[in-house]
Amino acid sequence: MRLLYLAHDLDDAAIWRRAAMLRAGGAEVQVMGFRRRSGPLPGEAICLGRTADARMVQRAGAVLRALLTLGAALKDMPPPEAIIARNPEMLMLAARARQRWPEAALVYEVLDIHRMMLGDGPRPRAMRALERRLLRGASVILTSSPGFIREYFEPFGQTTAPIRLVENKCFFPGAALPPAQPGPRDGPLRIGWFGILRCAWTLDCLDRITRAEPGRYRIVLRGKPAADQLPDFAEVVAANPDMVFEGPYRAPEDLPAIYADVDLAFLIDRYDAGQNSDWLLPNRLYEGCRHGAVPVVLTGTEVARTLAARGLGVAVPAPQAEAVARVLGSLDRASIERMKAAVAAVPAAVWTTSQAECLDLVEALRRAAHPDTTELSPREAAE
């Protein structure tokens, strides 16, 4: 099956994880999209231009420019059977591509609900109306959390297309990366905050709880700080002897080592409090649990409900530094080891995408692209 994957950020590792999953499912994938950083990409892609974090006007302009040049970029490409548009801004490009290939199925992938889509003001209403119009011809929606379906797609009536849940699980193409989980350790409680670091509340909270009890905690930060949201990130970390920033990391290659270095994975995010932050199931949930770290979550969020159903994690009752300090202060080494054992006892398939899931995903896309066919899929034929 041939797929055209339109990606909003080619420098996002999650884009390449999805492309690898699709290829593992038997698809031929052409990746095309925008860049936000420099340096080599993990794979081959057609670059449509550059965009920037948190600059929606600039990103809109880049999309409009790409609409003018998209025909030339697609000129020598074989016709895809489906076009996957990741995030709202790529839907417009997908609509233009379908003018060239009207028989291609439209697949919309949504892993976040941007704040610009929410609220009752004229701009979010207009954005939702545009999204609804562009989704009239959609064959299937891919989303990563039941919270997005329950809180966004259903109440706003954004689409009549079927919605398929594809969680942000780890994926290790052609390899079995874990283990690297250490045994009990002494010393301060080690807490990891990894990924795209953009929540000012989280940075302030972790800074405050360490300053309240010097030496009890060691905060390890890894990933990419969002300078537009955390302009004082470097200063805060440098001024706190119990915090350290270890820089970016590679996923999945570095995941076993970085999670083996901590006891707890901090999953509380208030960047879009009451909206996206409460509805998502983030990458760090699956990465942390797959590699043995105990997740710290906020009661009432989708991630807290998911973990509570399995009796896992540390739940904080309120988004206050005092509440975080109170809950973490009640933990001793024995209780942490018990919680680690509970996380380790969960089947790896809960946190990791299997080859069978890749095959099922591509088969779902094939059926969306060819709804009237009775031909057996390669997987069915093999069975």
From TrEMBL:
Keywords: Transferase. GO terms for molecular function: glycosyltransferase activity. Residues 17-168 form the Glycosyltransferase subfamily 4-like N-terminal domain. InterPro entries: Glyco_trans_4-like_N. This is Glycosyl transferase. The lineage of its organism: Bacteria, Pseudomonadati, Pseudomonadota, Alphaproteobacteria, Rhodobacterales.
